[in-house]
């Protein structure tokens, strides 16, 4: 029952359409959020609605080179730019990047946008960023080992990678029962993918023809993958999935802070 599609191409169109649908992760921040960030009062989310602990960021953001990875939507990138960072946003969806460009133009912010796949950062030289900010998005990517390898390469020694990802246990459940009836029906064996575990018919019926396709990823891929790339984990956080009945029972999101060790 596997479906042959190119996930990056499919998800590019899917996220472009989610911008039209005003999905909450595509809505540009309002001017007052940028105004406050300019005055030093800012926060951004990596997972759900939880502001990231300020200690996860460099003490001084001004002049910090930040790569917002798969982080389009006119949200974190413009806030960090207003707080003084030199921001580059990479995303697979032109419309998502358009939201960042919209906020940057509205607010007179310097911010670069680059259309690309999170697995290939080859357009950036090694050691060109102080921080990679990577909110929940790697569920849309079939392989994440290249993401960790590339993040490690583009970070300067001592730089940090802040990542949000989905608790893979969320993918155990029958999506139709969960989303439409709020019932937790264990159905799938992990690791899960919409393309291998559902027929095309069922996927399109339950999620819609144009919905992004997703992949569960194991904790070995998420945590072990970062460690294997050379990172040292320095902090961990979790949060309930903001709009899922699973939130009553478990955390739906995890976040890690990983550091590229300084050269001795
Ligand atoms: C949930 S949104 C994350 C951005 C949002 N501002 C946030 O706060 O979470 C997921 C993003 O991942 C992007 N994306 C999906 N697959 C990608 C890929 N292979 N490479 C780069 N970006 C990708 C989507 O276009 C989308 O903008």
What average pLDDT do the residues reach?
Answer: 96
3D shape: globular
Assembly level = single chain
Bound small molecules, which ones?
S-adenosylmethionine
Helix content: 25-40%
Q: What is the C-alpha radius of gyration, as a whole number of Å?
A: 18 Å
Structural class: alpha/beta
CATH fold-level assignment = Rossmann fold
Number of helices: 9
- Major beta sheet summary: 7 strands, mixed
Ends: how far apart? 51 Å
Strand order of the largest sheet: 5-4-3-6-7-9-8
The residue ranges in which pLDDT falls below 50 over 5 or more consecutive positions are none
In short:
The chain is an alpha/beta fold and 264 residues long. The chain contains nine helices and nine strands.
Describe this structure in words.
- The protein has 264 residues and is of the alpha/beta class.
- It has helices spanning 7-20, 31-38, 76-82, 94-107, 145-154, 175-181, 194-197, 200-207, 219-229, and strands spanning 45-47, 50-51, 65-69, 86-91, 111-115, 129-134, 155-166, 232-239, 253-259.
- The protein has one domain (7-167, 217-259): 3-Layer(aba) Sandwich (Rossmann fold).
- It contains 9 helices and 9 strands.
- The strands form 2 sheets. Strands 5-4-3-6-7-9-8 form a 7-stranded mixed beta sheet, sandwiched between helices. Strands 1-2 form a two-stranded antiparallel ribbon.
- Helix 5 (145-154) links the parallel strand 6 and strand 7.
- The radius of gyration is 18 Å and the shape is globular.
- It binds S-adenosylmethionine (SAM).
- S-adenosylmethionine binds at residues 8, 11, 15, 25, 45, 70-73, 75-76, 91-93, 96, 117-118, 135-137, 140-141.
């Amino acid at each position: 029952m596997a479906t042959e599609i190119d996930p990056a191409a499919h998800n590019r169109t899917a996220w472009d359409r989610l911008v039209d649908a005003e999905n909450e992760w595509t809505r540009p921040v309002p001017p007052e959020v940028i105004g406050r960030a300019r005055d030093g009062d800012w926060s951004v989310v990596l997972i759900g609605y939880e502001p990231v602990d300020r200690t996860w960021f460099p003490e001084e953001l001004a002049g910090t080179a930040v790569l917002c990875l798969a982080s389009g939507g006119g949200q974190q990138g413009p806030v960090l730019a207003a707080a003084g960072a030199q921001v580059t946003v990479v995303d697979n969806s032109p419309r998502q990047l358009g939201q960042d460009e919209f906020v940057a133009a509205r607010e007179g912010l310097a911010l670069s946008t680059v259309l690309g796949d999170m697995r290939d950062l080859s357009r950036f030289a090694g050691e060109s960023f102080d921080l990679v900010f990577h909110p929940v998005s790697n569920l849309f990517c079939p392989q994440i080992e290249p993401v960790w390898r590339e993040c490690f390469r583009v970070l300067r020694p001592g730089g940090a990678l802040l990542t949000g990802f989905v608790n893979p246990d969320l993918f155990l459940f029958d999506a139709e029962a969960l989303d439409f009836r709020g019932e937790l029906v264990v159905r799938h064996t992990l690791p899960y993918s919409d393309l291998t575990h559902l027929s095309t018919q069922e996927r399109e019926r339950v999620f819609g023809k144009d919905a992004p396709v997703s992949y569960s990823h194991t904790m070995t891929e998420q945590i072990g993958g970062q460690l294997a790339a050379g990172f040292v984990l320095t902090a961990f956080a979790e949060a309930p999935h903001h709009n899922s009945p699973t939130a009553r029972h478990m955390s739906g999101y995890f976040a890690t802070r990983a550091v590229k060790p300084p050269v001795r």
